[in-house]
Amino acid sequence: MLLREEFERYDRLIKIDKIGTEGQIKIKNSSVLIVGAGGLGNPISLYLTALGVGRIGIVDGDRVSLSNLGRQILYNTEDIGKEKVLLAKKRLESLNPNVKVGIYNAWLTDNEIAQRIFIKYNTVIDATDNFETRYLINKTAVKLGKPLFIG
Length: 151
Prior knowledge:
- It is a single chain.
- Strands 3-2-1-4-5 form a 5-stranded parallel β-sheet, with helices on both faces.
- The relative contact order is 0.17.
- The two termini are 31 Å apart.
- The mean pLDDT is 98.
- The chain has one domain (30-150): Rossmann fold (3-Layer(aba) Sandwich).
- It is built from 7 helices and 5 strands.
- The chain is of the alpha/beta class and 151 residues long.
């Protein structure tokens, strides 16, 4: 069920024949895990938040550096040295308070940890730039039967 405010917020999406109210409710009831809060994870998280995905998880163990600011649009100069996931949560929940953002301030390096996180979400998005992490994400998603999108 959508709240009155959600009908107004998602008006343009609801008007699309292939989405409609039923589709927007499905979006609201979905959950997506984004592994990586950098150059690819930033715009993905912004768009999923704007679309009204009900729950978004973000995994990243990094802090903002000056070199990130040319391509990572969630962060600004005052954020240098701060944890990316904490900043992302704050900005995304500010953009859309209907979306719940779970954060995992960690590097995804262990299969058991990956499984414990992945099991909480319907879909996984790999927004990393590290081959070993990508392999672990793929292996875990396949093992748990989670749809995986690779950026």
